Amino acid sequence: MTQATGTARPGGRTARTREAVRAATRELLAESSDGTVDIAQVAARSGVHLATVYRRWRSADGLVIDAVVDELGSRSPMPATGDLHADLLAWVTRLLHDVAEPNHLAFFRALLRAGAGGGNGLDFAEPRIRQIQATLDASGATVLTWLDVLELVLAPAYVRALLAMPMDPATEAVRLVDNLTAIRAAREAARAASQEADA
Predict the structure, then answer these.
(1) Which of 61, 122, 145, 175 has the most neighbouring CB atoms within 10 Å?
(2) For residue 50, what pLDDT is reported?
Protein backbone atom coordinates (compact mmCIF):
# COMPACT_ATOMS: atom_id res chain seq x y z
CA MET A 1 0.00 0.00 0.00
CA THR A 2 1.50 3.32 -0.99
CA GLN A 3 1.62 6.22 1.42
CA ALA A 4 -0.93 8.94 0.68
CA THR A 5 0.54 12.17 -0.58
CA GLY A 6 -1.11 14.19 2.15
CA THR A 7 0.71 12.22 4.85
CA ALA A 8 4.21 12.33 3.39
CA ARG A 9 7.39 14.08 4.54
CA PRO A 10 6.79 15.10 8.15
CA GLY A 11 8.48 18.20 9.55
CA GLY A 12 8.97 21.83 8.64
CA ARG A 13 6.71 23.70 6.25
CA THR A 14 5.13 20.48 4.96
CA ALA A 15 4.02 19.57 8.50
CA ARG A 16 2.56 23.05 9.05
CA THR A 17 0.72 22.83 5.73
CA ARG A 18 -0.64 19.40 6.58
CA GLU A 19 -1.88 20.47 10.02
CA ALA A 20 -3.47 23.66 8.66
CA VAL A 21 -5.36 21.69 6.02
CA ARG A 22 -6.45 19.01 8.50
CA ALA A 23 -7.66 21.63 10.98
CA ALA A 24 -9.63 23.44 8.28
CA THR A 25 -11.13 20.16 7.11
CA ARG A 26 -12.24 19.24 10.63
CA GLU A 27 -13.80 22.68 11.13
CA LEU A 28 -15.70 22.48 7.86
CA LEU A 29 -16.84 18.94 8.62
CA ALA A 30 -18.26 20.15 11.93
CA GLU A 31 -20.23 22.80 10.01
CA SER A 32 -21.33 20.46 7.20
CA SER A 33 -24.87 19.18 7.08
CA ASP A 34 -24.04 16.19 4.85
CA GLY A 35 -20.55 15.16 5.97
CA THR A 36 -18.75 16.58 2.94
CA VAL A 37 -16.24 19.39 2.43
CA ASP A 38 -15.24 21.50 -0.55
CA ILE A 39 -11.57 21.64 -1.53
CA ALA A 40 -11.73 25.35 -2.36
CA GLN A 41 -13.22 26.13 1.04
CA VAL A 42 -10.55 24.05 2.77
CA ALA A 43 -7.85 25.90 0.85
CA ALA A 44 -9.34 29.28 1.72
CA ARG A 45 -9.76 28.52 5.42
CA SER A 46 -6.35 26.90 5.82
CA GLY A 47 -4.49 29.55 3.85
CA VAL A 48 -2.90 26.83 1.71
CA HIS A 49 -2.89 27.33 -2.06
CA LEU A 50 -5.64 25.44 -3.85
CA ALA A 51 -3.18 23.75 -6.20
CA THR A 52 -1.20 22.45 -3.22
CA VAL A 53 -4.29 20.96 -1.65
CA TYR A 54 -5.27 19.26 -4.91
CA ARG A 55 -1.76 17.93 -5.44
CA ARG A 56 -1.36 16.48 -1.95
CA TRP A 57 -4.89 15.24 -1.16
CA ARG A 58 -6.32 14.71 -4.67
CA SER A 59 -9.99 14.88 -3.65
CA ALA A 60 -12.40 16.17 -1.01
CA ASP A 61 -12.85 12.60 0.21
CA GLY A 62 -9.09 12.31 0.63
CA LEU A 63 -9.20 15.39 2.85
CA VAL A 64 -11.95 13.92 5.03
CA ILE A 65 -10.28 10.52 5.37
CA ASP A 66 -6.89 12.00 6.20
CA ALA A 67 -8.28 14.47 8.75
CA VAL A 68 -10.38 11.91 10.59
CA VAL A 69 -7.66 9.23 10.60
CA ASP A 70 -5.24 11.79 12.04
CA GLU A 71 -7.77 12.74 14.71
CA LEU A 72 -8.38 9.09 15.60
CA GLY A 73 -4.67 8.40 15.87
CA SER A 74 -4.10 11.27 18.30
CA ARG A 75 -7.32 11.03 20.31
CA SER A 76 -7.71 7.27 20.62
CA PRO A 77 -4.52 5.41 19.73
CA MET A 78 -4.76 1.66 19.44
CA PRO A 79 -3.41 -0.05 22.57
CA ALA A 80 -0.78 -2.74 21.95
CA THR A 81 0.00 -4.27 25.33
CA GLY A 82 0.10 -7.87 24.10
CA ASP A 83 -3.27 -8.73 25.68
CA LEU A 84 -5.37 -8.86 22.53
CA HIS A 85 -8.75 -9.26 24.20
CA ALA A 86 -8.19 -6.34 26.59
CA ASP A 87 -6.68 -4.13 23.89
CA LEU A 88 -9.49 -4.77 21.45
CA LEU A 89 -12.18 -4.39 24.10
CA ALA A 90 -10.88 -0.97 25.13
CA TRP A 91 -10.64 0.17 21.51
CA VAL A 92 -13.97 -1.27 20.32
CA THR A 93 -15.81 0.25 23.27
CA ARG A 94 -14.49 3.69 22.29
CA LEU A 95 -15.25 2.98 18.64
CA LEU A 96 -18.90 2.20 19.31
CA HIS A 97 -19.21 5.46 21.23
CA ASP A 98 -17.44 7.38 18.46
CA VAL A 99 -19.39 6.09 15.46
CA ALA A 100 -22.39 8.08 16.65
CA GLU A 101 -20.38 11.25 15.98
CA PRO A 102 -21.10 12.89 12.58
CA ASN A 103 -17.40 13.11 11.65
CA HIS A 104 -16.96 9.36 11.94
CA LEU A 105 -19.83 8.56 9.62
CA ALA A 106 -18.47 11.22 7.26
CA PHE A 107 -15.17 9.32 7.32
CA PHE A 108 -16.89 6.04 6.45
CA ARG A 109 -18.93 7.64 3.66
CA ALA A 110 -15.79 9.27 2.28
CA LEU A 111 -14.06 5.88 2.18
CA LEU A 112 -17.02 4.45 0.26
CA ARG A 113 -17.07 7.35 -2.20
CA ALA A 114 -13.31 7.14 -2.72
CA GLY A 115 -13.59 3.45 -3.58
CA ALA A 116 -16.60 3.95 -5.84
CA GLY A 117 -14.81 6.74 -7.68
CA GLY A 118 -11.84 4.57 -8.54
CA GLY A 119 -9.63 6.07 -5.85
CA ASN A 120 -8.00 4.29 -2.95
CA GLY A 121 -9.28 5.66 0.32
CA LEU A 122 -7.18 3.08 2.15
CA ASP A 123 -4.07 5.05 1.22
CA PHE A 124 -5.18 7.74 3.66
CA ALA A 125 -6.36 5.17 6.22
CA GLU A 126 -2.95 3.47 6.23
CA PRO A 127 -1.77 4.98 9.56
CA ARG A 128 -4.81 3.48 11.32
CA ILE A 129 -4.33 0.17 9.51
CA ARG A 130 -0.73 0.06 10.77
CA GLN A 131 -1.95 0.67 14.34
CA ILE A 132 -4.45 -2.19 14.09
CA GLN A 133 -1.80 -4.54 12.73
CA ALA A 134 0.62 -3.48 15.48
CA THR A 135 -1.98 -4.43 18.10
CA LEU A 136 -2.39 -7.84 16.50
CA ASP A 137 1.37 -8.33 16.18
CA ALA A 138 1.98 -7.38 19.83
CA SER A 139 -0.25 -10.25 20.91
CA GLY A 140 1.35 -12.76 18.54
CA ALA A 141 -1.93 -13.16 16.65
CA THR A 142 -0.26 -14.27 13.43
CA VAL A 143 -3.48 -15.87 12.15
CA LEU A 144 -5.27 -12.49 12.13
CA THR A 145 -4.77 -9.40 9.96
CA TRP A 146 -6.23 -5.91 9.91
CA LEU A 147 -8.68 -7.17 7.25
CA ASP A 148 -10.19 -9.49 9.85
CA VAL A 149 -10.71 -6.50 12.14
CA LEU A 150 -12.27 -4.60 9.24
CA GLU A 151 -14.69 -7.41 8.40
CA LEU A 152 -15.59 -8.51 11.94
CA VAL A 153 -15.52 -5.23 13.87
CA LEU A 154 -15.38 -2.08 11.76
CA ALA A 155 -17.84 -3.09 9.04
CA PRO A 156 -20.69 -4.13 11.35
CA ALA A 157 -20.11 -1.14 13.65
CA TYR A 158 -20.26 1.41 10.83
CA VAL A 159 -23.07 -0.27 8.88
CA ARG A 160 -25.26 -0.43 11.98
CA ALA A 161 -24.53 3.26 12.65
CA LEU A 162 -25.37 4.19 9.05
CA LEU A 163 -28.69 2.35 9.41
CA ALA A 164 -29.45 4.36 12.57
CA MET A 165 -29.14 1.13 14.59
CA PRO A 166 -25.94 1.85 16.54
CA MET A 167 -24.48 -0.91 18.65
CA ASP A 168 -24.59 -0.56 22.43
CA PRO A 169 -20.98 -0.28 23.66
CA ALA A 170 -21.89 -1.88 26.98
CA THR A 171 -22.90 -5.18 25.37
CA GLU A 172 -21.88 -5.24 21.72
CA ALA A 173 -18.19 -4.42 22.21
CA VAL A 174 -17.70 -7.69 24.10
CA ARG A 175 -19.60 -9.62 21.43
CA LEU A 176 -17.51 -8.18 18.57
CA VAL A 177 -14.24 -8.87 20.37
CA ASP A 178 -15.34 -12.38 21.35
CA ASN A 179 -16.17 -13.09 17.68
CA LEU A 180 -12.71 -12.02 16.60
CA THR A 181 -10.90 -13.96 19.32
CA ALA A 182 -13.01 -17.05 18.54
CA ILE A 183 -11.83 -16.84 14.92
CA ARG A 184 -8.26 -16.59 16.19
CA ALA A 185 -8.66 -19.66 18.40
CA ALA A 186 -10.25 -21.69 15.59
CA ARG A 187 -7.49 -20.78 13.13
CA GLU A 188 -4.73 -21.53 15.62
CA ALA A 189 -6.32 -24.90 16.41
CA ALA A 190 -6.57 -25.69 12.69
CA ARG A 191 -2.93 -24.70 12.18
CA ALA A 192 -1.80 -26.87 15.10
CA ALA A 193 -3.81 -29.84 13.79
CA SER A 194 -2.30 -29.40 10.33
CA GLN A 195 1.23 -29.23 11.74
CA GLU A 196 0.60 -32.32 13.86
CA ALA A 197 -0.70 -34.21 10.83
CA ASP A 198 2.38 -33.25 8.85
CA ALA A 199 4.79 -34.28 11.62
Answers:
(1) 61
(2) 95
